[in-house]
Specification:
Length: 210
């Protein structure tokens, strides 16, 4: 199953991708996460990406496209993958189409009001690299693994605003997958598990078509 999760920043698509990955045993490929781990380890890619990420801008196309191309060619992607944060625009989708065929592009929808509420309480775990929230943490630590948490630099209020305006899911990207007959959309206002049930219904439809 080759999946794309679309959605505005803060919609919870990273969390949903993590759950799908766990339950369907598919690799979760988050371009944002790959950039962040490269920034952490100080690679050339990390240095380049940081200058864009810190401003809430997209990392240049060729860099991101190549990264995804190499990642999905790895062995663990043989039975499929979940792309989270890629493609972000039509050009990236068209590039992706030249290297693989997607089974489902699932949009995780959330109102702007809820997004801001969630992003301001979002934390990232230093140990398992999964997103968490002030509301879920236990004794100030990640509820999943007990790791220390931090606030993403791009979750600071000024950058959030920039990301929300500059990184909304473009309509032409949605149309592209709609025309291919692989687009669907769910609402993520409810809690994580209720949202996952909606996600899972969509995944089952794809599996039943095979
Ligand atoms: P995310 O974790 O998906 O919110 O991504 C964090 C940041 O990484 C974004 O604000 C972008 O600067 C960069 N990034 C992630 N995915 C892409 C992509 N597909 N194209 C360009 N930049 C990206």
């Amino acid at each position: 199953m080759k999946l794309i999760l679309l959605g505005p920043v803060g919609s919870g698509k990273g969390t949903q991708a993590g759950l799908i990955s766990e339950r369907y045993k598919l690799p979760h490929i988050s371009t944002g996460e790959i950039f962040r781990s490269n920034i952490k380890s100080g690679t050339e890619l990390g240095k380049l990406a940081k200058s864009y990420i810190d401003r809430g801008e997209l990392v240049p196309e060729d860099v991101t496209n190549n990264l995804v191309k190499n990642r999905i060619a790895e062995k663990d992607c043989i039975y499929g993958f979940i792309l989270d944060g890629y493609p972000r625009n039509l050009a990236q989708a068209e590039f992706l189409n030249t290297i693989t065929e997607i089974d489902l592009a699932l949009m995780i929808n959330l109102s702007e009001e809820k997004i801001i509420e969630r992003l301001s309480s979002r934390r990232m775990c230093n140990k398992c690299n999964q997103p968490t929230s002030l509301a879920w943490m236990i004794d100030g630590k990640c509820e999943k693994c007990g790791g220390d948490v931090y606030i993403r630099d791009d979750d600071k209020p000024d950058v959030i605003k920039n990301r929300l305006t500059k990184q909304a899911v473009p309509q032409d990207l949605i149309n592209y997958y709609r025309e291919k007959g692989v687009f669907s959309s769910i609402d993520a206002t409810d809690d994580v598990e209720s949202t996952y049930s909606l996600v899972d219904e969509e995944l089952k439809k794809v599996n039943n078509n095979d």
